């Protein structure tokens, strides 16, 4: 991996329908550096077209005769009426991005002969350290096969790719991917679009989202990696801390070479992940080396690694205490936000959620005049006014809107300028007849699965389970009756049997396949 070809492994040849191209003159192994060259022309960003033309004339004028001949032989898809326009056209057709942030561009005699394919077998990278563009094989390439790179800014569905290529390079791609029958192409497009969509979510969220919603972000990356694997495209694997870096080094080595800044940086991080610029911003997933599970099979290790939930009967219940899903009032999106990680606007200007979240508030006070505008206390102790929907006010039983009960609101948003939440749709709301604390404890107690007496905490030889909720165990009838009457299992039992409560605990809140509402109908797979 990451080897440099000791002699040229390719040559510039005519390629039918594409002009010239770079063709393998022998079998090339994945990871081989095919070319590495310095620019013949390099242009920085300038303020005006006049300045650009001056710069182009100056650079072309300073080329020696061989270089000028080489430059003028390059492909040009733009019409021209004078030599400056001709030079500019050649540069627009051929230039590759360079510079630390790829803001400048350069022309290369060999790299600019490489044609595009959406299922390309090589990648081009600018190495700032050695001032060269390099092309690496990302698959094994057979002798006689054309070497191709991607000209696309992002890898999207077939129509979007074709439009971008036609607009910028004036050709219609007929690569293997673009030539697939419609049904096959469509199923690939769905995955490519999802990958692109996740890119957007991660980019918009930036570092704040990575810190605040690390779990959800990891899930997004996990989903992307799985999709890439399904597409059998380039393996782009990001992992946790050291292991993340360890997994990246061979990938960068294969595609960028051992002297690339990426290989140097990630080899260093693999040795010492604390060197990362964001190290320490969140300690939520701090894992000591000795906490890494041993003896797991490859599938189980990947599940642990990516924090995938595998057991849906346990494991989901933590979400009532999970601040990424069960948001406090201060973390709720604002109903006037035009851009948010939580919402997007459809083409028809309809606001729709991008992920799942909910708000929980225990009813503290009820206004005697506006009875159905209760005040609640959220998971962080903030007092918030609720505005229940008009028709729902009549439907809600008085016993429901009662001090001490807890309101769950799906996709809650805070009102502009008010410590309040307006519930537009009654199906987004559910009231549980328990306090917030008890609900949260219930989710944990249900999860622990221990066969100990719910009342006295002892372990008996012949334990009996509550025949209604089938959740808690008792050492005998005395304990069971005491718990029912004194400790309030009567109400708790009702909640435990409520299909909405059961669904809330079973539901995988991290995976978003569309908006949900009460009553919750949760598929086993969701
Ligand atoms: C940077 S040049 C590549 C080398 C060029 N074929 C030559 O003859 O020098 C880019 C141009 O090559 C052509 N080209 C690149 N990839 C192509 C493809 N997959 N199919 C058809 N033409 C392609 C297009 O005209 C594009 O504007």
TrEMBL record:
Residues of the MYND-type domain: 453-493
Classification via Pfam families: SET, zf-MYND
PROSITE patterns: SET (PS50280), ZF_MYND_1 (PS01360), ZF_MYND_2 (PS50865)
SET domain mapped to chain residues: 7-152
InterPro entries: SET_dom, SET_dom_sf, SET_domain_protein, Znf_MYND
Molecular function as annotated in GO: zinc ion binding
Coiled coil (UniProt feature): none
Entry-linked SUPFAM superfamilies: HIT/MYND zinc finger-like, SET domain
SMART domains in the record: SET
Alphabetic keyword roster: Metal-binding, Zinc, Zinc-finger
Residue intervals passing through the bilayer: none
Domain of life: Eukaryota
CDD domains, per database record: SET_SMYD
Protein name according to UniProt: SET domain-containing protein
């Amino acid at each position: 991996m990451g080897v440099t070809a000791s002699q040229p492994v390719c040559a510039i040849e005519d390629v039918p329908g594409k002009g010239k191209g770079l063709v393998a003159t022998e079998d090339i192994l994945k990871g081989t550096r095919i070319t590495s060259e310095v620019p013949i022309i390099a242009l920085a960003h300038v303020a005006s077209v006049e300045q650009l033309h001056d710069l182009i004339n100056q650079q072309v004028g300073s080329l020696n005769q061989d270089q000028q001949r080489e430059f003028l032989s390059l492909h040009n898809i733009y019409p021209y009426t004078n030599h400056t326009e001709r030079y500019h056209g050649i540069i627009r057709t051929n230039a590759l991005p360079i510079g630390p942030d790829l803001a400048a561009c350069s022309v290369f005699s060999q790299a600019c002969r490489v044609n595009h394919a959406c299922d390309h077998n090589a990648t081009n990278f600018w190495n700032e350290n050695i001032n060269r563009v390099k092309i690496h094989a990302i698959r094994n390439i057979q002798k006689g096969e054309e070497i191709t790179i991607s000209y696309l800014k992002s890898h999207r569905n077939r129509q979007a790719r074709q439009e971008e290529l036609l607009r910028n390079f004036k050709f219609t791609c007929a690569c293997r991917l673009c030539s697939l029958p419609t049904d096959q192409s469509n199923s690939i497009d769905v995955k490519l679009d999802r990958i692109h969509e996740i890119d957007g979510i991660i980019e918009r969220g930036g570092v704040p989202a990575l810190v605040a919603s690390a779990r959800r972000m990891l899930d997004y990356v996990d989903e992307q990696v799985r999709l890439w694997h399904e597409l059998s495209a380039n393996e782009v694997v990001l992992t946790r801390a050291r292991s993340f870096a360890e997994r990246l080094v061979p990938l960068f080595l294969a595609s960028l070479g051992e002297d690339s800044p990426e290989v140097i940086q990630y080899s260093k991080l693999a040795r010492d992940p604390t060197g990362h610029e964001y190290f320490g911003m969140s300690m939520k997933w701090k894992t000591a080396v000795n906490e890494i599970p041993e003896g797991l099979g490859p599938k189980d290790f990947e599940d642990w690694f990516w924090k995938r939930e595998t057991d849906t009967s346990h494991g989901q219940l933590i979400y009532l205490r999970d601040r990424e899903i069960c948001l406090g009032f201060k973390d709720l999106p604002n109903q006037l936000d035009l851009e948010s990680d939580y919402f997007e606007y459809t083409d028809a200007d309809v606001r729709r959620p991008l992920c799942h979240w909910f708000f929980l508030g225990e009813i503290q006070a009820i206004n005697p005049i506006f009875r159905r505008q209760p005040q609640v206390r959220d998971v962080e102790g903030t007092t918030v006014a609720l505005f229940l929907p008009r028709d729902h006010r009549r439907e809600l039983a008085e016993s429901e809107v009662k001090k001490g009960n807890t309101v769950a609101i799906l996709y809650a948003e805070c009102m502009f300028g008010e410590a309040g939440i307006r519930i537009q749709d009654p199906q987004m709301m559910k009231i549980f007849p328990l306090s917030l604390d008890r609900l949260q404890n219930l989710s944990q107690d249900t999860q622990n699965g221990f066969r100990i007496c719910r009342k006295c905490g002892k372990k008996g030889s012949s334990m009996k389970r509550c025949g209604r909720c089938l959740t808690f165990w008792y050492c005998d009838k005395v304990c069971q009756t005491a718990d029912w009457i004194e400790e309030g299992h009567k109400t708790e039992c009702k909640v435990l049997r409520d299909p909405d409560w059961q669904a809330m605990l079973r539901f995988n809140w991290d995976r978003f396949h569309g908006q949900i509402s009460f009553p919750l109908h949760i598929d086993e797979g969701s």
